[in-house]
Write the structure tokens for this entry.
Amino acid sequence: MKPLCDLHTHTVASGHAYSTLLENVHMAAMRGLKVYGHSDHARLMPGTTDEIYFTNFKVIPREIEGVRILHGIEANILDELGTIDVSQKLYHKLDYIIASLHSPTFKSLGKEMNTQTLLRVMDNPYVKIIGHPDDDRYPLDIEAIAKAASEKKVVLELNNGSLNPLSTRVNGKANIIKMLEACKKYDTMILMGTDAHICFEVGDFEASLQLLKEVNFPKELVINFELSRLNMVYNQ
Ligand SMILES: [Zn+2]
Ligand SMILES: [Zn+2]
């Protein structure tokens, strides 16, 4: 099956990514994606853009080169209460929010508290995607997370970037395999995201697709294969 959307991508606005929105969309079109989402880092990531960037998406056409455009953000999880660096005002302007643990904005609290933190993030009704829960720098009880995600109708990300041997995340592949096994068990939906930081990565899900095959992951649990499943990650 073919992935139809990529919602985890960064543009130059993130400060450590290297392509423009149009370069990314062009690559999405070349790779046959139907939906492209941009999700630049929220304001507390060093070097990223200010919140005002995320308030003016109305100027961006909803379709470019035949690709539908969605407006998102990758929020930083800040504390054990699950606070994220996205204001209430923005919640209503964005199509979706990915919430992730990042080293500049979150220090590991140990497996139990890291897990509690993600469970609390899932209680935020505007957060429908947990980004890259696959990093040994943040040990997690992935069983508990997959179970809660299924119950709370939150989606876990299969991050293609974590499968890159050059990734700074630790043990990505082994952790993703554990995550996929837990998702199978609890019928938890996953969303593949490339986490592209340059246009060449947009829509390139090769490593993820290979892994899905290796673990015989059910296609019905993958958002990217069926556009109607995108309803699960939208802020209504
Ligand atoms: Zn980044
Ligand atoms: Zn991230």
Summary: The chain has a mean pLDDT of 97.
